Amino acid sequence: MMRSFLLTVAVGAVVAFAAPASASVTGFGDRDLPTVEWGLTVGGQDSPADQVDGVAINSNGDVVITGVFFGQVTIGQTTFTSRGQGDIFLASISPEGQVLWARQFGGPGDDNAFDLAADGQGDVVASGWFSNTVDFGGTSLTSAGSQDMFVAKYRSEGTLAWARSFGGTGGDGGNELSVLDNGEIAVSGISAGPFKAGGETFAYGGGSRDAYVLRLGSDGTVRWIKAFNGPGSERIRAMAMNASGEVFVGFQYRGLVSLDGRTVVSAGGWDGALAKLDPDGRGDWLLGAGGTGTDNVRGAAPGPDGSVYASGTFSGSAVVFGEPLEDQGRGDDYLIRVSAAGQPEWTVTLGGPGTGNGGEIRSEAGGVVMSSLIEGALTITNGSRTWPLLPPGLATTTHLTAFSPSGTPRYTFMPEPATGSAGASGGALAVSPDGSSIATALRFRGQMLIGDQLLTTTPTGNSAVAFLKMPEPQSARVAFGRFRPKPFSIRAGRSQKLRITVRSTGSLAADRVRVCLKSSVRKVRKRAIRLPGCRRLGRLPAGSTKTVSLRIRIRRNTTPGRIRLQARLRSDNASNRTTRFALRIRRD
Fold first, then answer.
1. How far apart are CA 586 and CA 188, in angstroms?
2. What are 558-580's pLDDT values in tens digits?
3. Superfamily of domain 478-586
């Protein structure tokens, strides 16, 4: 139900606030629920609606968005006017919801940014397509055909690092992206004709479109290309690369998909497939997903121990990666974790009376996050366990649902469309490198409640970005403080107290804390040093400090010099800490 005290926010406005977790977020027994920090509308007054197609969170915590606009678009206080059919926008938003900068790229033709991903240095990489000649911020690219694929890298302040184009005489474009912390890139391309990249020209397969995987270095140089240019129609709809450089590719296709001697054939109209490529681009395995209806693989994200999470949609009776599935309505969503060897480890289905949309997914510290459409009540099923998922007022909207590594739902976020408004359909999704925040892009028409904030668009509809923040982890942590005296020295034949301050730095109390000293010298010299062993400090409340005194004795006739001692800090419920310090033995 709508609340009378809500603040209405016009297109391009943003409000930061601290919403209670229950405003738009519901937990499935998980106490660590995110809060909705802010929402931002992106769009203009004209038609067609402007779209946020890519979102990323860089290592600074800033949310970067990209997409396409027609006519005019307003982002914060900045308004752009397109130079052609569609232009590209790129903007950065602080964790507090303030627009830091916004850029426009485009020419007289049709230009579009489709995906965005961040590396570990604060930079972002965008992919999409362009026509004619476009200046991407200092580098101009000219298409060889009606449209070409582009990949461009931008620094955290919005300046261009480099831009590259790929394609032939037909229509080409860039789609899915995955970027490692070191800047290495895996990106997919789509082509309706011969495709040229990295000095190679690939023949057109004869279907309605071909697909390609391009591995690029952090400077944009081509490392290798994998072609999927058979006689069918291939489209890559998901891309994920793990820290080892293995690439997982999700397809929606007609006809067949082939990979180094392996082939999957569609059973109906559109089917899905999931492929694994090794770091050099060689095929490892290829799995099919489909039945007589419409099926796909829409999302992929790295999992633990070389596994991969994959999401998509299926309709009717389908076999997804060897798992038989049956939908509950007009098509359901699935989320499956597949082992490094290509074996399904568990399967989650999300079914109801509506139409499955497939889901974008991203890995995070607690497992995986999925964004998809919900039309009426859904049932989440994992084996014999089920959980209901009910949208506000049973309206059509987006659900952003987090799952544990074992496929158990943890929490869900659902924006609430106002009466008479078109529900939010989501897609683009990002998780910060440290897992502390999540951003998702939504499209809607009319009014939409995000947390306790009511956003408003024009009658034609526009996009919005929602920013969620995870709570600080509830844990106990201990750390060393000061060592006194410093420098620490003892005269041979004497003893000296060493005072060590210990701090409880976590959000929970640290239990059974103790400090232990150990010598790293040879046995001969150990006899000359008498250490007190361990001293117990007991329980340290969160935020407290305590000082312990340990007396160290040096025997007579011990040779002067410097030795290294080791202090160990231990607790029953906090990670151990170790530090080393010097002790000087003197004779004076």
1. 68
2. 888 888 888 999 998 888 888 88
3. Immunoglobulins (2.60.40.10)
